[in-house]
Amino acid sequence: MLLFRNTGPEVFAPLSPEQRQQLITRWNAWFDGLVTRGKAVEGQPLEIETRVVAGPGGSRITDGPFPETKEAIGGYVKLLVRGLEEATAIAREHPALAHGMIIEVRQMTPDCHLGVNTLPANETATSASR
User: Fold this and answer.
1) Which helix (H) or strand (E) holds 63?
2) Which residue from 65, 37, 34 is spatially nearest to 52, judged by alpha carbons?
C-alpha cells in the first residue's frame, strides 16, 4: 500500500496553473497505468479535515486539521504486487515526488497481532476453505 503524505495545497502552490495541469495529467497516467497492468485496485485522496477519537468509550474527540497535517496521510493507493521492492519501485515513479510529496510504502498483513478479525466473517470462512 502506498500512503501519500505532504500533499496539501501549499505543496503545489508554487506551480503555475499549467504546471499543475501537467502534474495532474502525469499523476493520472501513473495511476491509470498501474490499474491497466493489474498493479493497483483502488486509490483515494483523503480530506484535510479530520477527527480523532480516543479514550475509553471514545470519550475524547478532537476535530482538525492539526498543525502537523502535512505529515498526515493525504491519500492512498492499494497495490497488488509481489512485495515491498516492487511497491517501492512503483512509488519511485510517482510524478509528485519532485514537488515534495512523500510516499510511505507499507505491506498489508492478513493477521492482526492482537487477533482482531481483518476480513468480514464470510470472507474469512471462504479464505479458510481454499
Assistant:
1) strand 60-63
2) 65
**Cell 479514550 identifies what position?**
55
Grid cell digits, residue 99: 514537488
Bridge partner list, 5: 73, 102
CA distances from 107 to 4, 9, 14, 78, 110 (A): 14, 28, 33, 10, 10
pLDDT tens per residue across span 46-91? 988 888 899 999 999 999 877 666 678 999 999 999 999 999 999 9
- Domains of the chain in sequence order: 2-128 (3.30.70.1060)
What is the DSSP code (8-state) at residue 50?
-
C-alpha cell at 15: 506551480
Burial category of 84 from C-beta neighbours within 10 Å (exposed 0-12, middle 13-18, buried 19 and up)? exposed
Strands in 2-5's sheet, in edge-to-edge order, are 40-45, 73-79, 2-5, 102-105
